[in-house]
Design a protein that fits this description.
Length: 164
């Protein structure tokens, strides 16, 4: 009887370990993507575009002439495959940094854009890409993200895409 209990405990332990390792492996494949693009005008934040894959919310917050910000929010459920495509492109391009900035000739910040994958660190505090090739690599990763976001955004806000 004790032999059966020992075998059952051993078998239960093996099954638990297999399932636990399977869950850990799945978590490694799940990437959490966070994106933020901030545009400045005369030193004031004019527009913020952001996306968080955990909440699936893409948001555009714009400053209006009355001094208030108005927000447009769209739910964009990127699949694990979509996020993996973006992440794989990032790995393939071997970008040094996922923080792009645009400055005026007077060194005034016009825009700051960041993308992070599963990082607890604040990528906005990382230095901006200075190398043109790194900036181009970042732009490719950002464009891939927008390939997935814009179709849904266009459905909700089609007027923004009409040629005026």
């Amino acid at each position: 009887m004790e032999n059966k209990k020992a075998k059952l405990k051993t078998l239960s332990l093996i099954v638990y370990i297999i399932f636990h390792q399977s869950c850990i492996a799945q978590k490694k494949d799940n990437h959490h993507l966070v994106y933020k693009d901030i545009l400045y005008y005369n030193g004031v934040i004019d527009e913020i575009k952001s996306y968080d894959s955990k909440t699936a919310i893409y948001q555009v917050k714009q400053l209006y002439p009355d001094g208030n910000y108005k927000t447009k929010t769209v739910t964009v459920n990127l699949t694990k495959k979509n996020i993996k495509e973006i992440y794989d492109l990032y790995l393939k391009l071997q970008s040094k940094n996922l923080h792009n900035c645009v400055f005026t000739d007077n060194n005034e910040l016009l825009s700051s854009s960041t993308i992070s994958f599963n990082k607890n660190e604040n990528v906005e505090n990382l230095p901006c890409n200075t190398d043109l090739k790194d900036k181009e690599k970042y732009d490719q990763v950002e464009a891939k993200l927008y390939d997935f976001i814009l179709p849904t955004y266009r459905l909700i806000y089609p007027d923004e895409f009409i040629q005026k």
